[in-house]
């Protein structure tokens, strides 16, 4: 035996290396994809047309063929057996495909729910920000507010000036004429 093919020494103080499985193994994902493809075909109009054609051909042959060439005479026991066999394989394949679809739907639902939760959180955040801006704007003087205040101040100043002029003219009036 060559040194490279020699078995490693088994030691009791160390775990065994995990090697390849000795028994047959299968990839459940590959079988799932296959079952979906078969279920998709079985659920198509193409399959129904082929199946109908095959059954009609089988019935016609077994009804109108010579007696020595009929593989399945009138009660059509073999046809019934074949249809039962096909149904017994189709049902589990369809169930497998439905289970895989249900798993995908569940993942999609969870992703949609997470996205909805994020959108709700974003909307709530934006709502709070808009409310804060409105409150801040309530405390900030706007351009129209400032113009109105300046206009009021200008009117007050103009009124006081006119009052002062009036009071001065009344005070100065009698002195000038004397």
What labels would you give this structure?
single chain; 178 residues; mainly alpha; elongated
Structure report:
The protein has helices at 28-42, 45-64, 77-139, 143-177. The chain is elongated, with a radius of gyration of 47 Å. The protein is built from four helices and no strands. It has 178 residues and is an all-alpha fold. The protein starts with 27 loop residues before the first helix and ends with a helix. Helix 1 (28-42) packs across helix 3. Helices cover 75% and strands 0% of the residues. The chain has one domain.
Order of helices and strands: HHHH
Number of domains: 1
- What is the molecular shape? elongated
Gyration radius over CA: 47 Å
Q: What structural class do helix, strand and pairing data support?
A: mainly alpha
Oligomer: single chain
Number of helical segments? 4
Structure summary, number of beta strands: 0
Average residue-wise pLDDT:
86
Summarize the structure.
The protein is mainly α. It is built from 4 helices and no strands.
């Amino acid at each position: 035996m060559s040194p490279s093919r020699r078995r490693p020494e088994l030691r009791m103080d160390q775990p065994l290396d995990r090697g390849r499985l000795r028994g047959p193994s299968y990839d459940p994902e590959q079988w799932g994809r296959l079952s979906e493809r078969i279920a998709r075909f079985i659920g198509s109009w193409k399959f129904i047309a082929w199946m109908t054609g095959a059954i009609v051909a089988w019935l016609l042959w077994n009804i109108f063929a010579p007696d020595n060439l009929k593989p399945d005479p009138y009660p059509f026991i073999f046809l019934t057996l074949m249809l039962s066999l096909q149904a017994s394989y189709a049902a589990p394949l369809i169930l497998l495909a439905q289970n895989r679809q249900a798993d995908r739907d569940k993942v999609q639902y969870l992703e949609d729910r997470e996205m909805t939760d994020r959108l709700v959180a974003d909307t709530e955040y934006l709502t709070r920000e808009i409310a804060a801006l409105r409150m801040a704007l309530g405390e900030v003087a706007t351009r129209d507010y400032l113009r109105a205040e300046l206009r009021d101040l200008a009117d007050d100043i103009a009124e006081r000036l006119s009052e002062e002029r009036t009071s001065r003219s009344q005070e100065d009036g009698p002195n000038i004429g004397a």
